[in-house]
Every structure is written in structure tokens, then in C-alpha cells.
Amino acid sequence: xxxxxxxxxxxxxxxxxxxxxxxxxxxxxxxEATSLAPSAMNKQPWRFIVVQGKKNVEDVVTKAxxxxxxxxxxxxxxxxxxVNIKENTFPDGKTFCLTDAGLAVENLLLAATDLGLVTHxxxxxxxxxxxxxxxxxxxxxxxxxTPLAYPxxxxxxxxxxxxxxxxxxxxxxxxxxxxxxxxxx
Amino acid sequence: xxxxxxxxxxxxxxxxxxxxxxxxxxxxxxxEATSLAPSAMNKQPWRFIVVQGKKNVEDVVTKAxxxxxxxxxxxxxxxxxxVNIKENTFPDGKTFCLTDAGLAVENLLLAATDLGLVTHxxxxxxxxxxxxxxxxxxxxxxxxxTPLAYPxxxxxxxxxxxxxxxxxxxxxxxxxxxxxxxxxx
Lengths: 185, 185
Description:
The structure is a homodimer. By secondary structure, chain A is an alpha+beta fold. Chain A has one domain (about 5-155): NADH Oxidase (3-Layer(aba) Sandwich), CATH 3.40.109. In chain A, about 35% of the residues lie in helices and about 15% in strands. Chain A contains six helices and four strands; from the N terminus they run ααβαβααβαβ. Chain A has helices spanning about 5-10, 25-35, 55-65, 95-115, 125-135, 155-165, and strands spanning about 45-50, 75-85, 140-150, 175-180. In chain A, strands 1-2-3 form a three-stranded antiparallel β-sheet, with helices on both faces. At the A-B interface, helix 1, helix 2, strand 1, helix 4 and strand 4 of A face helix 1, helix 2, strand 1, helix 4 and strand 4 of B.
């Protein structure tokens, strides 16, 4: 799929997950794409846990995901993203690792879209519960989770159609200025 | 360009900027791609200042960019990214806006790559100086900056070739676990 098309078609589709398993080869491709994002000082601070298998996914979702996200219990794969904020924070309090994780996760979402798979980035998840269930060191911080699945409707386009038609985004004039703050672009 | 190709070819090319101006139409395409990223609760917390014009770019780079980034003084366009961390932080201290900005910026970088333009995300920039020069409200936080330019070598491929051949990334086994922390993927 063309890059700008993938950017336009990527949308959050937790209601459209097939239970069909996702091939390891595709998960690898997606994670490799993720690793190619830039990061401050090339630190690559992102870490991932792939959760695969009906029982494993159900256990993690039931215990750690909020009520609104219980629908992803049927996903064949979850990808959970972590960084170590403390280790990646400068003495002046600045940290780049959360932004770096965002850069990497967008690659993940776009690569999945390109491969015809559906995703749905989620933050309404208990990092503390994940730590307990998955033996995650206390110093790691949960950033975001997404299911990874084939679309229930058989094609990405069909699965995404309705949601894309309802998409709401700010206009450029609400978020872009020219040469100084407040000056119209 | 195919999505996975753009993800692979996107690299940081501050040494390869042409002074040729970038058409407004392309800047708009890139910013629209940026706006299509997901964000926590669809808050779209990202804000952009486009700096264009030789004098404007030189002024901003000279005053606010660190020594190592002075080379981007020749760029025809800079894009500066901000969020309001305070406004987007929950009572428990969690904030999603830095990750959201990362999601949007990766779309920006990939859309530029797709259009044959070079970028270079930079954090070695003084947010305080930017605030002074560009009348940015004190509550806004600088996240990242990038030049946006045609490649000095005439084609993106030529500009990127050497740098891509030197790319260093962690192997998947250094950053991905399976079903629990520390378990090989």
C-alpha cells in the first residue's frame, strides 16, 4: 500500500477483530518496521511484549485492560509497549523516550495496516497489573497496547469503512501556525 | 512509495539539505498526514509552527538550535512541534501527549520521505529560546524540530544511501519478549 494511503486508512478497529491467528512472519515484519523509527541519540528505548495464544491474551485483557477494552479479549495477538522513563530522563527533567515510543508505535500501526491487519492503540490499561502478570521489572513504564488481528470482515477496507467515514480531526488552522505562534498558516 | 519502503528509507539527513524552497502544497500534505495519527481520547494535542524563508529559518536556528544542528540553517523550512504537558497530565502524573506527538511526527517524517523530501528530527534545541523568538505561550512544551527540504543530491535515494548503509539498530531479541518479560520472542 502507498505510504499516504496507509496513513489515511490506519484507524482504530477494536470492534473488528477476527480470531484467526497472525503468522509469526507478519509479526516480525511489523516489529522490524517499528525498530526503524528514529529516537533521541538513537537510544531505541522501546521494549515490546508480544502476547499470543487465546489463553494468554484472555488472561492479560481480563486482568489488566479496562472495561471499555475487554472486547480485545478475542484478539489472537496483543503487543504491549514499555519504556524506562527514569533511566531516560535528564537531570533537567526532560525525557524523550515517550515521544520515541510514539514514533516507533506509528510505524507499527502503519506496517500492520499495510499488511491488512487491524490495530487499536490503547492506554486504558493498568500498567501495574501488567507488571504482576508478565513479570515486568518495576522500573519499566507501560506506554501503549494494541491488539493485532486480521479484520473480522475479511478485508481491511470493509472493516475500516464506517469508522473512517466518522473520523474527526482538527483543521490545520487549529493546530498549525506560520513563523510565530498564533499567526495563520 | 510503498509504506514499508518509506519506513525503511526514512533516515535523518541534516547534512543533505538543498536550499530549494518547498511548495506549500507539499507542506500541507505532510501536515495533513500528521493530523491523521491517533491520540489518547482523540485529543490531538500536537501544535506546529512552520518556519519558512531564509531570514526566518536562519534566525531561529542561530538563536535556538545547538551547535551540532547549525547546519540546518540552510533549510528552506523548519517544522517545530509543541504540546502542553501540564494541560494533558492526569492527576496520577500520567501524560499521553508526548507519545501522541511521536505518533504524529512519524507520520510527518514518512509523508516527507514519500514525497522525496528530507527530514531530521532534532531535540537539541532550546525550547526557551524558541518561546522568546516565536511568541510561544509559556505553558507550551517544545517536543521536536525537523528541517524539511529537497535533497541536495537531487534524489532522496542518493541523499540517503550512505547513511542508510551505516544504520545501527538493536536486534529484535534485544527489545521484544514473548508472553512475559525476559522470555525470548
